[in-house]
């Protein structure tokens, strides 16, 4: 029976690049590389398109044995600096080859010393947007840092997490901070200083210890805060409901409230959770409250009137429980809920779309949930029966054994879409298996990673029409063009070659016009010959994306000529090539004149005969012959005169720092095709003698701008369809109201 897999309207790969960048913003570099690196070209280009989502843990990520050090350094060489830094120890924080303090936007100090705190100043970190400082006892340095933070010393700072706020200081306010986390033992200081200085605060995570010197907070210490929406309050010390009531009186706009306390806090054992009184306090003080959470309650230390609680876990409907269970893996579901009662058992067994990772310790789970598993990863060579997993969509064998491979059959797994098989080095994939994979028996198989594909023979009717993406390792170069013949609809092929040089058989004529668009070749032992590569090029004339990592035994200029002759559709080329012999000088201008795709490769860096084709922002400013005419996107990250008139075809322009001179040039129509303008650092536009006309701009983005500049932009951009900005008011801002505004 053939089952058509429904096409979901929203899938991860359908998300726009902007959303993916927002997601990547919350993921550490090592996790980004482990999860997304080399999945496909698009994700790679997004990962390495910007440095704003990259942060490193210093010095862990740059030590000699760091897993992803090479990838990190390769990326840094392209981007020139990082944006996010986390110091994991109390060692000295020094400027590194890719750590430049003025470019840091996110800074985390896990074990700060007095010298660390003293370094965190607006002069050193002018672009700081996120700051987290661990516990420190350096009172003098902390007071100075708090003065900078809460007096708008860091005008771009949005999120901040601090400790040890315990002294009264005169702060002028910081309008940019919208998320704050602090520890304090002075509730009056929190109200009178912190909330007053953070007038636009939206999210507040507060560890507040109530001292014995305060009974309750008096009324009207300051006006009520008007923007706070989310409060996570950790109670410590001598709290009572009366004190909580006096505290909540100053934050009436809160919509989400989380209260918690420590089980080990001896003073909190006297706190009485009377929910009737608590609900009355909420109704009086927090009229907008829509969500209340109270985790970690201990019945031995609290008095709880359960009759006052509106919902319990077992009172939730099945639909909510089912939605909740989606976020659990099978192992967690089994150990948390299985066997509680018949209702939970039935719910668990009714779920589908389960994912399971099998290690040595959880082999029995596959027997319990075989028919419900859709994504299966086996990380052990032990014999495992997967014959009952008939609904599999994704299968990954990380240490594939002969027993496991023999069970991969189309009659058992008819819906398989993704397949990964990584056997030990001494095991080649059996002929019977390869025949089934490449004979269209798996009607839905679209992506496969097959290691040790060493034996491959073409048989009549030997074709897979569904395969679109394929990664193989092989020891015989003939395997590559045989795969092309077996997969006529293949879009992307990544081949890793581990064999010796073999004579490659001339492919049959039907292979000569394959529709393949992406080809990646990796030859780590430098055994792949130029003639063999040339024969493969004959088969793939439609390739648009080419990556080569091999030893080139002819002059590099000959390789380039051959590529341009064979691959007439090429528009993207990357290489990491060991050139031997190096008896011809590489003429960059000649290569770039051959084809437009090579003109963006600004320079060749010959380092011990290893050629990296890279772009360089530094030399781009002074070189008029290579890049500007072909660029559609320009990013200027320093205060230099780039000569905008040279970039006549620019569609998207981004300035980290900009001047009125550059804005006036744009207004003079030197960029007739400009559609998107991104001005990262802007506060107030200086007066300009003349009018701004930015009629081609459709999308405008600014980080912070006052209302006067906002009005100026609206007047200048008559055809604007999207304006993304953060507006603040200042004493320089005068709102001008007119009928035409």
From TrEMBL:
Coiled-coil residues are: none
Q: Sorted alphabetically, which Gene3D superfamilies does this protein's record hold?
A: Ribonuclease Inhibitor (3.80.10.10)
Question: What organism does the UniProt record list as the source?
Answer: Rotaria socialis
Q: What is this protein called?
A: F-box domain-containing protein
Superkingdom to which the source organism belongs: Eukaryota
Domain F-box, first and last residues per copy: 9-58, 310-361
**InterPro entries cross-referenced by the UniProt entry:** F-box_dom, LRR_dom_sf
């Amino acid at each position: 029976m053939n089952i058509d897999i429904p096409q979901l309207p929203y899938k991860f790969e359908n998300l726009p690049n902007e959303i993916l960048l927002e997601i990547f913003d919350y993921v550490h570099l090592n996790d980004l590389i482990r999860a997304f690196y080399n999945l496909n070209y698009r994700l790679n280009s997004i990962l390495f398109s910007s440095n704003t989502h990259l942060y490193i843990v210093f010095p862990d990520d740059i030590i000699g044995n760091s897993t992803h050090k090479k990838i990190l350094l390769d990326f840094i060489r392209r981007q020139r600096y990082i944006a996010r830094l986390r110091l994991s120890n109390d060692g000295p924080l020094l400027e590194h080859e890719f750590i430049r303090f003025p470019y840091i936007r996110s800074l985390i100090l896990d074990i700060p010393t007095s010298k660390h705190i003293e370094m965190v100043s607006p002069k050193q970190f002018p672009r700081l947007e996120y700051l987290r400082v661990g516990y420190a006892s350096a009172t003098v340095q902390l007071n100075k840092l708090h003065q900078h933070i809460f007096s708008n010393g860091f005008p771009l700072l949005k999120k901040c997490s601090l400790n040890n706020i315990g002294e009264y200081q005169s702060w002028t306010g910081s309008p940019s901070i919208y998320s704050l986390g602090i520890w304090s033992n002075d509730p009056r200081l929190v109200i009178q200083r912190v909330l007053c200085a953070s007038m636009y605060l939206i999210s507040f995570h507060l560890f507040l210890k109530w001292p014995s010197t305060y009974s309750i907070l008096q009324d009207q210490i300051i006006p009520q805060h008007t923007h706070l929406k989310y409060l996570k309050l950790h109670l410590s010390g001598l709290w009572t409901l009366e004190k909580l009531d006096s505290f909540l009186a100053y934050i009436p706009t809160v919509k989400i409230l989380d209260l918690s306390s420590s089980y080990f806090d001896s003073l909190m054992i006297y706190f009485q959770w009377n929910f009737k009184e608590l609900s009355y306090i909420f109704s009086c003080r927090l009229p907008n409250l829509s969500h209340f959470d109270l985790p970690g309650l201990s019945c031995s230390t609290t008095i709880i009137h359960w009759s006052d609680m509106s919902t319990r876990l077992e009172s939730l409907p099945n639909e909510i429980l089912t939605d909740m269970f989606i976020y659990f893996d099978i192992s967690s579901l089994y150990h948390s809920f299985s066997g509680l009662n018949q209702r939970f058992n039935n719910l668990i067994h009714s779920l589908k779309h389960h994912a399971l990772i099998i290690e040595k310790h959880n082999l029995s789970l596959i027997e319990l949930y075989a028919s419900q598993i859709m994504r299966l990863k086996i990380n052990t060579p032990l014999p495992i029966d997967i014959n009952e997993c008939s609904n599999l969509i994704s299968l990954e064998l990380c240490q594939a054994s002969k027993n496991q491979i023999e069970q991969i059959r189309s009659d058992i797994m008819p819906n398989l879409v993704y397949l990964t098989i990584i056997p030990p080095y001494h095991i080649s994939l059996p002929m019977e298996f390869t025949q089934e994979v490449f004979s269209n028996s798996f009607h839905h198989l679209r992506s496969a990673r097959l290691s040790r594909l060493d034996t491959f023979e073409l048989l009549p009717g030997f074709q897979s029409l569904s395969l679109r993406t394929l990664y193989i390792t092989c020891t015989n170069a003939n395997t590559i063009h045989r795969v092309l013949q077996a997969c006529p609809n293949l879009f992307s092929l990544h081949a890793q070659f581990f064999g010796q040089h073999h004579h490659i058989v001339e492919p049959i004529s039907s292979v000569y016009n394959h529709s393949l668009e992406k080809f990646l070749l990796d030859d780590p032992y430098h055994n792949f010959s130029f003639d063999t590569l040339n024969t493969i090029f004959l088969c793939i004339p439609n390739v648009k994306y080419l990556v080569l990592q091999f030893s080139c035994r002819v002059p590099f200029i000959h390789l380039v000529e051959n590529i341009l002759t064979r691959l007439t559709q090429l528009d993207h080329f990357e290489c990491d090539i060991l050139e031997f012999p190096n008896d011809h000088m590489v003429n960059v201008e000649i290569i770039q004149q051959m084809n437009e795709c090579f003109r963006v490769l600004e320079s060749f860096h010959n380092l011990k005969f290893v050629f990296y084709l890279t772009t360089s922002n530094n030399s781009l400013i002074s070189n008029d012959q290579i890049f500007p005419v072909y660029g559609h996107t320009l990013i200027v990250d320093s205060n230099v005169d780039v000569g905008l008139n040279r970039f006549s075809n620019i569609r998207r322009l981004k300035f980290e720092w900009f001047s009125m001179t550059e804005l006036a040039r744009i207004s003079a129509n030197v960029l007739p095709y400009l559609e998107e303008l991104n001005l990262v650092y802007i506060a107030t536009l200086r007066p300009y003698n003349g009018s701004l006309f930015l009629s081609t701009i459709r999308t405008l983005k600014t980080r912070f701008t006052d209302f006067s500049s906002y009005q100026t932009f609206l007047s200048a951009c008559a055809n604007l369809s999207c304006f993304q900005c953060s507006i603040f008011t200042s004493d320089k801002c005068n709102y001008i109201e007119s009928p035409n505004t």
